[in-house]
Design goal:
Blueprint (H helix, E strand, L loop, with lengths): L12 H8 L4 E5 L9 E6 L4 E6 L5 E6 L16 H11 L15 E5 L2 E6 L20 E6 L5
Length: 151
């Protein structure tokens, strides 16, 4: 089942604390946006891994990973090359098309059950859309999210 460091979307935040402890920084956001409830952003490891948690549900809604200390359920980490990760995922999963442009969203994979894993090769551009991926581009951010959260 799609997870990062053993944590799945929909898991209770207690599971995160059981795995990673209680040493996190928290930012509260009262806007519901597309999550349907206000959220907490809880950062571990100076932001190396962060969780969007529903205020009312106390469940994991989204996970962002930028530290190479943790891995996905398929063993992928920050720093792997585009060539390695894209080849592997394209064998098993499809890359959805943008509802805006109709173009394939490179590095985004539909992993089933409405879940999406996104490999971002340039996190500093503050865009989750990848532009100009080369085979030796390195993964800088991995996001596990729901298709419905991404417009």
């Amino acid at each position: 089942k799609p997870s990062i460091t053993g944590i799945c979307l929909g898991d209770h935040f207690e599971k995160v604390e059981n795995i990673l402890g209680e040493d996190y920084e928290e930012i509260y956001n009262e806007e519901s946006y597309y999550y349907g409830e206000p959220t907490y952003l809880r950062d571990y490891d100076d932001g190396g891994i962060s969780f969007t948690i529903g205020k009312d549900s106390n469940k994991v809604l989204e996970i962002d990973l930028t530290s190479d200390k943790y891995e996905t359920w398929l063993g992928d980490k920050i720093g792997v090359t585009a060539d390695e990760v894209l080849t592997k995922y394209r064998k098993e999963f499809t890359e959805p098309e943008s509802i805006h442009t109709g173009e394939k969203l490179e590095g985004w994979f539909d992993v089933g059950d409405g879940l999406l894993i996104i490999f971002d090769f340039d996190k500093d551009d503050n865009m989750i859309i990848n532009k100009d991926i080369t085979s030796d581009s390195k993964v800088e951010l991995i996001r596990l999210t729901k298709m419905m959260y991404m417009d």
